[in-house]
Amino acid sequence: SGFVGTNACKALVSMGKKVAAVNRSGAPPLSKETEQWIGQVDFVKGDAFHPEAWRSLLKGAGGVVASIGAFGSYEHMKKVNGDANIMITEEAAAAGVKRMVFVSASFPPFPASVPLRGYIEGKQAVEEVVRARFPDTHTILKPSVIYGPQGDAHPVIAGIRALGPLQDPLMSHSPLGKLASLPVVGGVFLPWSPVHAVGRAAAAGATQDLPIRTMDPHEIAKYK
User: Fold this and answer.
1) Which fold has domain 3-222?
2) Digit-coded pLDDT (tens) for 110-123
């Protein structure tokens, strides 16, 4: 229930669903953005690597959204982006959850991908497990850079995300967007993904059978 997870919770509440969210700190602080729906979510403190704290929530659940992500060293990124989400996926499959949604990413082109190797390898490993455990009922979201408001975001992160409202329409509605199909450098021209659209797409995948199992930024943008 971080940046993306919180928006998925909001979208699910708006659909009238019963929602539980697991993170390491419990319920986020009350704010103008959350006050209208946060009370309708059951926030549970827990660690992905200690499923005994949250395993019971999976019983009878119609869908699960795994959206854990982090940056750092190779080992840290591989563990958090990969192993943690794999743990959630395996537990969901064992509990008989019907639908599984994983928030992956559209990976940057070489050479920008080099320092993110652990992030990319971790996400790719989860994608394989999700497809294997939920072959007909999975949704994998592959957004580009995710932007949108987040009260506790680091100033540098907040500054980057502030460019989203400019970058997204520029790449979506100008000839520059056509360059996204180019090899190696094409990823630079993908439109960034608004967090509310990622959250809505995740909520849709967790509650209904969708015709597209893997959504790129253009498919995610349909949930704006």
Assistant:
1) Rossmann fold (3.40.50)
2) 666 778 899 999 99
